[in-house]
Specification:
By secondary structure, this protein is α+β, with helices and mostly antiparallel strands. It has one domain (about 1-290). Helices cover about 30% and strands about 20% of the residues. It has helices at about 1-5, 15-25, 85-95, 110-115, 130, 150-160, 165, 185-195, 200-215, 250-255, 260-270, and strands at about 30, 45-50, 60-65, 70, 75, 100-105, 135-140, 160, 225, 235-240, 255, 285-290. It is globular, with a radius of gyration of 19 Å. The model is unreliable at about 295-300 (pLDDT under 50).
Length: about 300
């Protein structure tokens, strides 16, 4: 991105995504599907699966790539693209595959942003957090609150985390508000309050972003429980809504499975291309989280 910026060129989502995925090989395996006509595109850019080599548990997300731009002298991410059809389709595809809708944000370099949206208490030149935040993630659920497109950008950027923070087990989880949900299992309470590893850790980071936003909503938590499919790590979850139109725990954690879906396992075993995805997502990427005893080469966390 720095090279592109120095030449006066912009960075495009497709090119940067390809660079991200190819650099992570062999811990990342991916396949692209046939591109459909732009006017008929109905889904997301990617479906990503993280698989824990230790436990076999998996966590899935549908991904839409977005780029931070300047508009009317303000910073802007076009979450409402195509009269909001793209975002609506992202939620639809997330429900279709039973995974969380997630935006991967290409925010440019520190020079491009000049420290804007830095989460450090005091931004300094050469800020490491700004460098990492060049590639960030935010749950799509956090982009549906707020008024204007600029408000939605500001809200999303208040909760974004870098991809490095998302996957780094050494980043300590922070404390976020959680009421005493009636009916929540002891295992789920421990999941919310104790450090996690592997695919559970990544799922927890996504949940923490949503919990952080929920802590600023002045509505009481509900005591009801939602039931998820049997292969979910947590088959029963509190169905608290906050200010959203859907219960956020089942929304974020439906993709946390005891094992990866069959189409993912077949792809890893014999390279079999999953059926029924072309036209809904542009490709699939599978991230293998190494076992604790396996060495991890630099840059492949």
């Amino acid at each position: 991105m720095s090279v592109l910026e120095s030449q006066g060129e912009s960075f495009e989502e497709t090119a940067i995504t390809n660079l991200l995925l190819t650099t992570g090989h062999p811990l990342i395996r991916f396949v692209k599907f046939n591109q459909v006509e732009e006017g008929k595109w109905t889904g997301a850019d990617w479906i990503w699966w993280w698989i824990d080599a230790t436990t076999g548990e998996a966590f899935g997300a549908v991904i839409q790539a977005k780029r931070l731009k300047r508009k009317s002298s303000r910073w802007w991410i076009d979450f409402g693209y195509d009269d909001n059809r793209q975002r609506s389709n992202l939620f639809f595809v997330g429900d279709y595959f039973g995974v969380v809708p997630l935006y991967v944000l290409y925010l440019g370099t520190s020079d491009y942003r000049g420290g804007v949206y830095c989460r450090e208490d005091s931004h300094q030149p050469g800020c490491e957090l700004c460098r990492m935040s060049t590639l960030s993630a935010v749950p799509a659920l956090l982009t549906v609150v707020g008024g204007s497109e600029f408000d939605q950008t500001d809200i999303a950027m208040s909760y974004h985390v870098s991809l490095e923070e998302l996957v780094d087990p050494d980043v300590d989880p922070q404390e976020y508000w959680s009421p005493d949900f009636a009916g929540a299992t002891d295992e789920f309470v421990r999941f919310l309050h104790e450090p996690q590893a592997g695919s559970r850790q990544i799922a927890r980071k996504i949940v923490d972003q949503i919990r952080s936003a929920r802590a600023r909503m002045f509505t009481a938590a509900t005591a009801d429980v939602s039931t998820l499919p049997d292969d979910a790590v947590f088959p029963e979850l509190p169905d608290d809504y906050g200010h959203w139109s859907t219960p956020y725990f089942p929304h974020a954690l439906a993709g946390l499975r005891a094992s990866a879906p069959e189409y993912v396992r077949n792809f890893l075993a014999n390279g079999e291309t999953p059926e029924g995805m072309s036209g809904r997502v542009g490709g699939m990427a599978v991230f293998i989280i190494p076992s604790e005893h396996e060495p991890t080469r630099a840059g492949s966390s």
